[in-house]
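Please predict the structure of the following assembly.
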Amino acid sequence: MPPDAIVERPARPNNVQLTIDGTPVSVPQGTTIFDAARAHGISIPTLCHQQNENPVGVCRVCVVDVGQRVYAASCVRQAEPGMTVKTNTEPVVGVRKTLVELLMSDHPSPCARQQHSGDCELERLAAQAGLGQSRFPTRTTPRGHDDSSLAIQVDHESCILCDRCIRGCDDIRNNWVLARRGKGYQAGIAFDNNLPMGESSCVSCGECMVSCPTGALTNRGVVKSHLEGDTVDPTFLTGLPVFENVSGTFLGLNRNAIVERRFKAGEIICREGEFGATAFYIVDGMAEVYLASPIAHVKTEGGARGFLSKLTSLLTSRDEDGRNEESTRSYIPIDASVDLPYRSPIAELGPGELFGEMTCMSYYPRSATVRAKTDCTMLEMLRNVLDIMQRNKTFREQLDRTYKKRALDSHLRSVPVLAPLTADFIDHLREHVELLRFQPGQVICSQGEVADSFYLVRLGFVKVSQHRPGGDIVQAYLARGSYFGEMAFLTGTPRMATCTALDHVEVVRIPGDDFQLMLDRFPDIRRKLETESAEHVEQNRQRDAQVADVSMDQFLSQGLMEAQSLLILDLDRCTRCDQCVRACADAHDGVSRLIREGLRFDRYLVATSCRQCRDPLCMVGCPVGSIRRRNSLEVIIEDWCIGCGQCANNCPYGNINMHPFPVEIDDLLHPGRTVASVKVKATSCDLCLGHAEPSCVYACPHDAAHRVNPPEFFGGLLKRQKIAKQ
Amino acid sequence: MRIDQTHRTWFIGTMAGVLVAAVIYVPYTLTSPEGANGGTAVGLVYGSLASACMLFAGLLGARKKVPIWRIGRAQTWMRGHLWLGFVSFPLILFHSGFRFGIGLTRALMWLLVVVFASGIVGAILQHFMPRLTTERIPLETIYEQIGRVRLQLVAEAQTVIDEVSAALAGNVSQATAQQRAASASAGTMGGVTVASGLQVDEGASAQLQEFFRREMQPYVANGGSRGMPLADRSRSQSMFQQLRLLLPPNLHPAIEDLENICEEKRELDRQVQYHRILHGWLLVHIPASYALLLLGAVHAVMALRY
């Protein structure tokens, strides 16, 4: 508003009379010069101050001449009676220009904000002041970036230490995450105790970002993709409890990352095995979640045995053809708040529930098919919005409540060893367990620390590793339905391994006292856990003994050190008769799990067959947890594999094959009819469980095929070679 | 199967068996009025033992049909096949008194010789050939996949040729209008014979395509191409050397790629050759063995009955 538009108000008894730029003004006592000037249409530039925050006067850009020895920061200096304020004299403008120039010397130009939207307040001031190249030397040591948050990009280089973000976080949102770190030249903003933003307790409300005058805190550019559906008004979202306390501006910036979708009853929302990048939040209506893939394993008729017979793959269910590696699990874990009962893998989801978190956060394939049971309204969202939701305290509480109410029971019962738990004890646990969330790479518990909790994995993958003098050894990857942290309680020792979140992980924490109570009340559980614990200790001991013997750079490069059991073929003996392949096919219903090709090491061919790796990367990302270790060695694939191919993609050695088989599926064009289609399931070597020796080795007539422990076998070989050279 | 020190027990057992049989045979043949004869008690014992050995050896084929039956490790069966099959030959000779006889007996004896000889050849081949294959064919692939690999090599070569042709065409198309005009009149510009350069590029591209179409594609795509120039390494080298002269140095790595593809094809041909050698003898050994067992059974029935 131009100054001449100001209407002079009559002076009130408690008001202060002063003059600003020759204009007499009257303001209530306690008003700052900045506010007084603004109220009368006189603009004073500033950087560190904005109207909704308490002034701190750190940038000094708002300096004015109050007729004293030094210029005063108008945002903090209160108006005094009779004060004569000059805001725009040449010396004041000169000082201001110098201050901006100094700030610009420590600010990359253009910063991210200036590049994206052209509204960096510092750069605008510099442009207004006609500043070009700064006369002052720039900083030589970089201050760094922090890309750990999915929603907000932190560029410390652009930070001018105005503290607007800190006041937004602490005073406005009362989150108390942001603060200053360091002193003088080393000063900067910090999250919690100087943690990366993504690992801090930041709830991604976006207040800091909308407060920041420069490109130090900006919205991450992940909102360009346009989802199918109706754009949602941010005010509607902020009205939902799950978005309570989230900045509307922030939701506005992420407008394209969340859409409203309506589904008619019977409509498919997502299909198992498909890749995606979104999660769904049910606003109203009911949905059914189920596995469309048959729970069965692949069996091939003919081919391997018959000379002229046709190779046909069929699926055989457990009822028809039981397998001796059968799991005793009664629930199939999926990427939703519920698990699916094994016998009838179908469940319902209702308003306020979320599904597709792992697909959205970690890009895993969809774990189940979801169909609208009634007409549904859902919010489909991308990663950054889901991240905001998951950090929202209200949503966390809601998720926690829903989990405890609906899923805790089935989750505990899905763990075979916890099957004896009674309903009353589960009710007791309901009051005490806690859902905890961890970012990728975040340590959940560390080797050597005193145990205070037992954990169940609800979402994501946890890496269990042990620190050894030669380096860390990965003991296992734990998926949903697995548990950890029991050994320290059973043995009364500190934690024996470090558990780290491999991706976005959620665990259920059972406090130590409750776990101890469980062990005391259910001796069966204690006994089973003790048995498993003893097995793990023995396996670890054996592994350590093997690893200590070997140091072989050359076969580290082939990944052979990672293997626990290698199928090798002595090429000096092998007549390439393929008897091993035939035996494998015969032993596995006609589907061979080995290919007589692969890397060569010395005169040995490392056949393409599961190596039972120490670090079984194949297990990471299975959306339904159907690939798992048995007795910590053999990797087996359960019958509920949905054929997404994640394990086959993850295996660095190409040792998992996707085997096709014919199925009948619903004809989308003609409802009620079915059409022939092809699905796939993963197959891999299971070491011919139940036999003393794998069939491939047993059937080799030339003594060429061997299953060996690499460190033992190649260790001896290399020692012999070394001696021979000497 | 490689015959090494792990066969010591079988070897000693076999030799001991042969020695015992020979020790018994000498007095038997000297004391028999008509010499050693299959119809005598001792002769029948020799015949029965030899038949049992041959039968066991013959069962290896059946054992292989059921690789997952836990009825003894396949290598034990193979050792038995080798050594009992070996010992059956002297036993039959002792049984027949070193006579071939006539008719069915004669046929049987010749079949035995064929089976025994082919078996010995097979054992020798299986002892040496796997190592030879390993040494000489570093890029060995699955035998049944060789046809597919050949097609992949053709596709790979085609890609290289297309890239080289595109690069050469690019050189021509990037020429300025002035250069093109000079090229058309075969003149010079600034002391550089522009025209000849462009003509060389166009000509080289055509020659390369022609080489691929006439020589390389038929060679790489087909098995049994022994008579073709590229099958011979030295001739192949000289052909590729000529191609190098045609092309600018920056395209020489592509020529090396093509040369490597031909080298891989030669290796595949060698693998086919070795594989045939390694398994070819079975074409004689298996039918002859079946015939021997069948006729041997007929012989036994007839001899015992009549």
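Residues 5-138+280-305 of chain B form one domain. Confidence is low (pLDDT under 50) at residues 178-200 of chain B.
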